[in-house]
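Hey, resending since the last one bounced:
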Amino acid sequence: MDFWDRLADSIIDNSREPNSTVQLSNFPTRKFASSDTWESFVEHFRREQQPLSQACQAWAELFGPLRTGTVDDLVIVGQVGQSLDGRVATATGHSKFINCPAGIEHLHRLRALVDIVVVGVGTALADNPQLTVRQVAGPQPARAVIDPGRRLGANAKLFADDGVRRLLITTDGSQAAPPPGVEVITLPAEDGNIAPSAIVEALAGAGMRRMLIEGGCEVAQGWYYARPMPADDLFAWLLRYQPPGRP
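The structure tokens again:
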């Protein structure tokens, strides 16, 4: 059973209790696999020359495909938390607490497996995320923010000096003055947007092979659909879109 089969067959348990949560039952959590097997899986996952242990099979079925790329040696993972009606935030822009606890844990497992986590400046300003691994065991990834206009302040949590690499991705003409120790990558922009392909190339040049894109609306749209579009136009675009190879 592949990833999408597991997702399609997952059971959503949403009781009527006040503090109910959504549980995807086909995905390994503490209920299905111990923390010991998770730690062993992470260790073997990063040793790419070694086969994954059979003891970690539950984790390997879900995360194994992220180990190496199918086209080249790069793996780009997009992560978006959204409500059951497809929203990533409320109408006023508030986006916290959409994910259930199992979703947050899944996100932290992804962070533990990648080289770098990338967010847009909008998410960084709205949520001030740490982008660290806290809910599960695992190494800390590097952190990067896409900030063409240099809007993010030096006190942002993702810039915290905790021993991991921190990167600011900005434009050629910006007056970037990040905190000490933050690496600056300057790239050309068109209409204020930096091309995702340029970001991937730059991060690959910085030694990053597995990248987790934790974007909000603009970054997610820009990454998947080449450039941002108005949110109201996205649904109409999806209705018209035909995947390659389908009539």
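Residues 1-32 have pLDDT under 50 and may be disordered.

Sorry for the duplicate.
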